[in-house]
Amino acid sequence: MFLIVGLGNPGERYEFNRHNIGYRIIDAFASELGLGDWKKQGIYHNSEILNVEHMGHKAHLMKPGTFMNNSGVAVHRYLNDKHLETENLWVIQDETEVPFGEVRVKFGGSSAGHNGINSIDQEVGSGYWRIRVGVGRPTNDQPLSDYVLSNFTAQEFEQLGKVIDQVVAYLIKSLEEGTITSQTFNAKEN
Question: What is the average pLDDT score of the chain?
C-alpha cells in the first residue's frame, strides 16, 4: 500500500502556479486511472483523498488541504491513521533546482529549501520517495517565493502537457510494478 501525494496550494488562485504542479500531476494520474471525484476529509486538514487499486497494487492519493508550508501535518496524520510506512510515501513536488521539464526521482535527501518537503521532513523524516518536477528558476531578480507562486509562461504551458503525461506514465508503471526507482528523465523531449 502506497500513499502518493501531490503537493500544491488549495484554491483556484493557485491552480496554474508552478508550485501546484504536484496537484496537476496527481489530478491527471487519477483521471488516467478513471477514478471518481476527490473526497475532502476534514480529519486530514481538508485534504482531498482517492483510493486506487491497479493491477493488484493499492494506493491512497492525496492533495493536502493545508497550504504548501504545512503539508507535513496532513501527510503525517494520514500515514499514522492508515499504518503506512514512510518508505511507501511518494511525493510529487515542484523543484526549482531542476530545469523545466526535467524530472528526477530519488529516495530521501534534503529539502533543497522546498518548504512543503521541509514540512514533511519535520513530521515524518526524509525516508520517502520524491518525484521532483523541474519548474526552472527565475531569469531575473524575482524572489524565488514569488516565482513558484507565479503561473507558467505561455511557452511552458505548450510543453507542460508532455511533462505531465510522462510523469503520469511513470507513476502508472511504478504502481503496476509495486515499486518505484531512482531515475532522471527529460519529459519535454519525449
Answer: 94
